[in-house]
Each structure stands twice: as C-alpha cells, then as structure tokens.
Amino acid sequence: MTYREKLNKLNDGGYHFLTPEEEELYERNTYKEMGRDEGLKEGLEKGIEQGRVEGEKKGRKEEKEETARNLLKNNVDIGIISKCTNLSKAHIMTLL
Fold it and tell me: What's the CA angle centered on 65, arms 50 and 94, to 5 degrees?
C-alpha cells in the first residue's frame, strides 16, 4: 500500500492529518500524476503501433527479397523479377 493510500485510509476513518490547503495541494498533485499516466499510456500505445507498422513493412520487404532470391535460383529474368516484386534491378543484383 502506497503512502497516499494509507493516508486516504486514515482520512476516511475520521482522522484528518492534512489541513484543507494540504488536501487541495494533494488533490492537485494527484490529478497532475493522473495526467502524466494518461500521457505515458498514450505514448506507449503510439510506440507499439509504430513498431507494429514498421515490423510489417520490414516483413513485406524481406518476403519480396526471398521471392526474388527463389526466382533468381530458377533462372527467371531480372526484369521480370523486378516487375513482380517492385524491387529495383540493382537491389535484386545484391541478393545474388
């Protein structure tokens, strides 16, 4: 149990250890912390989404490169591979 939770429990039991000014300051700080928590949560969600999008993009590129390698092994023309995978001929040549 945190310090604040203990203090709230004591205050709820009829004991008041804070002056009205201290209670107001405590509430203000609590709301600030809640806002920080919401901002942190929002930032984390955005970061996870960005990571997912980047991971999918990387996966698609790796899949195209694997397809190009397989086509090269089967002696398919580089021009055709380029059209089918949307990879440049120069990039395909690096996959050899």
Answer: 115
